[in-house]
Write a structure and sequence with these properties.
Structural class: mainly alpha
Order of helices and strands: HHHHHHHHHHHH
Helix content: over 70%
Radius of gyration: 19 Å
Number of helices: 12
Shape: globular
Largest sheet: none
Number of strands: 0
Distance between the termini: 25 Å
Strand content: under 5%
Length: about 260
């Protein structure tokens, strides 16, 4: 199944890359600031959270007295959560948004979630690249431990698109699914230690946070970027397994109902 999907996507790689390029260009066409807008939104969020929480959290971050510690902690969480949120949010409506394309053109439908990942990855690469420049400029680059972010990023992307495909397929048949998940995503953000360390939570609450698959992923980014340490690999086993399960379930659900989806759109 995987090899067949990979072969089909490879044959249509021109379609995928062309779609990514067109969407990126159309998003910023007739805009004076262009791609800068992809930076301003997370930057504004980071500034607001820094102003609100910096004084409160400065003494709460364990194991560091770095002046930039909380800002780096916040960027590590907000930027990577933004990647997860964009992939899942856009994947949940990708089949609905491309209904006309699906009905009129014959191509592997699985290319659509791949386009979502590529577009979100492009936006993430721009803002995260600037964040890396900030780390280097301020002398806070984590060194060799930075390589530990690559497997964490891979797990997060597989988890995000697996969940996105499941929600996206269900949303075609039950439109309330998308509406419900949009609300759930708001609560999910605050239930994940993005702007606060989990150590400030009561022990009883921390138990429930540990069941949140995004919590160890965000924590891994923060440990590497704030403390310059390698991720806690055992803590990533749970989200990694869940990512694989969601990817498999999502693909099976998609393959089983792709024909019915065309009739529902």
């Amino acid at each position: 199944m995987v090899s067949g999907i990979a072969a089909a996507v490879w044959r249509y790689r021109g379609f995928v890359m062309g779609s990514v390029r067109r969407e990126f260009q159309s998003r910023y066409r007739n805009s004076l600031l262009g791609a800068t807008w992809s930076i301003l939104n997370p930057l504004a969020m980071i500034v607001v959270y820094t102003v609100i929480f910096s004084q409160v959290m400065r003494s709460k971050l364990p194991g560091t007295d770095n002046t930039f510690a909380y800002s780096i902690y916040l960027c590590a969480g907000v930027l990577t959560w933004g990647l997860f949120s964009e992939i899942v949010s856009r994947a949940q409506t990708v089949f609905l948004d491309n209904a006309n394309l699906i009905k009129k053109i014959s191509f592997p439908r699985i290319c659509l979630p791949l386009i979502v990942v590529c577009n979100a990855g492009t936006n993430f690469a721009i803002i995260f690249g600037l964040f890396i420049v900030f780390l280097i400029t301020t002398g806070n680059f984590p060194g060799l431990a930075f390589a530990g972010l690559l497997p964490v990023l891979l797990i997060q992307i597989v988890f995000s698109i697996g969940l996105g495909i499941v929600i996206g397929v269900l949303n075609v048949f039950f439109r309330d699914v998308g509406q419900f998940f949009t609300v759930l995503l708001q609560f999910w953000f605050w239930f994940t230690p993005v702007v606060y360390p989990s150590t400030i939570l009561p022990p009883g609450v921390q138990v429930y946070v540990n069941w949140n698959p995004m919590a160890p992923l965000i924590a891994a980014y923060q440990v590497v970027l704030v403390n310059g340490r390698w991720p806690d690999w055992p803590s990533l086993l749970y989200p990694a397994v869940l990512a694989v399960v969601l990817a498999v379930v999502g693909m099976r659900l998609f393959r089983r109902h792709v024909g019915e989806m065309v009739d529902e759109l």
